[in-house]
Amino acid sequence: MTDLPHLVALSLLPPWCWLRAAERLRRGDTAEAILCDLLTTHWPEQPNKASTLHTRAAAAIRRACEHGIVAVPWSDAHYPAALTTIVDPPPVIWVRGAIEALRAHAVAIVGSRAGSPYALAVAARIAADLAGRGIVVVSGLARGVDSAAHRGALTCGATVAELGSGVDVLYPPEHAPLAREIETSGAIISELVPGTPPQSWFFPLRNRIISGVSRAVVVVEAGEKSGSLITARCALEQGRDVLAVPGNVLTGRNRGAHALLRDGAKIVESADDILEELQIAAPPRLRDAASNAPPPDPILACLTPGEPSDLDAIAERTGLSASRLLPRLLELELQGSVARVGGGRFVRVDSSC
């Protein structure tokens, strides 16, 4: 993984650089070349900036090794394929826990930090039902709805927490025991290098990752200015489904979610509503192995064993949009018919047509 230090150095640049970096990484440029060009163009008066960035990157990698944190560069097969499709994916994500959790179908559940008892109960129930069907529940480890969703998911399956700090700097600190539970079957992830303390502007930034790794975002109780609406907006910009749970109209606590419903978000009363919207009848691991074989899959038909293809190429061959193509590719991956080889590319693993 010789490119990792340069990718980590890229991640230490301001977030507005990540969009330009992603565009060039997709074109096949090396992280080293991209970093050099960005520094030359935007910081010509700081000749020592490259050395400083590489020193910080090396320190972050050492800290990760010391704390059992895995660095997953965007070119790695474990990097969430869904995340490669957003306009500004982080060059590296840092992971504590079960890295395989990043490869499963995922649904985000977000909501108020001061959630009502009703909201907390609904978030926990829906999360438990989704996790029990093999769906990984994603949220932000915040107080309120986020933590209720994580706890609900843990009763039946796995969950992923995306932080607004380094994965070894937990916030809020009282959720450290919850984070340890999450790591046993799921993962704690962040785009910020280990050791990064939480800052207010990190949290809106991390919301695009919560939606980016997920197939859909479910909003459970959100006020008019709730941060959950930022996640919902990111989801819409990324082509994800946005769903919302209706609440009490007398309290005013759910006006943000009700606004989403007025704008066309699907009403969620149970996990079945979410699975129906995503057209998932049942998770692959629970399907009846004795059922009749499905007809030839057009996606498999356009892939050749041993020859990786990116999403754009597969979309062109199949005529499917990226928003419809990616969920099917992830399902085929879980079935073992398709494998990811890094950089958001897929390859067929069998030899049949």
List the helices and strands and how they pair.
Layout: H1 4-11, H2 16-27, H3 31-42, H4 49-66, E1 70-73, E2 92-97, E3 106-111, H5 117-132, E4 136-139, H6 145-154, E5 159-162, H7 176-185, E6 187-190, H8 202-212, E7 216-220, H9 228-237, E8 241-245, H10 255-262, E9 266-267, H11 271-277, H12 298-301, H13 311-318, H14 322-335, E10 338-342, E11 345-348
Parallel strand pairs: 3-4, 3-7, 4-5, 5-6, 7-8, 8-9
Antiparallel strand pairs: 1-2, 2-6, 10-11
Helix pairs in contact: 1-3, 1-4, 2-3, 5-6, 6-7, 8-9
Description:
- The chain is of the alpha/beta class.
- It has three domains: 4-97, no CATH class; 99-277, 3-Layer(aba) Sandwich (Rossmann fold), CATH 3.40.50; 288-348, Arc Repressor Mutant, subunit A (Orthogonal Bundle), CATH 1.10.10.
- It contains 14 helices and eleven strands.
- It has helices spanning 4-11, 16-27, 31-42, 49-66, 117-132, 145-154, 176-185, 202-212, 228-237, 255-262, 271-277, 298-301, 311-318, 322-335, and strands at 70-73, 92-97, 106-111, 136-139, 159-162, 187-190, 216-220, 241-245, 266-267, 338-342, 345-348.
- The strands form two sheets. A nine-stranded mixed sheet has the order 1-2-6-5-4-3-7-8-9, sandwiched between helices. It has a two-stranded antiparallel ribbon with strand order 10-11.
- α5 (117-132) packs parallel to α6 (145-154), α6 crosses α7 (176-185) and α8 crosses α9 (228-237).
- The longest helix is centred in the N-terminal third of the chain and has 18 residues, at 49-66.
- The two termini are 34 Å apart.
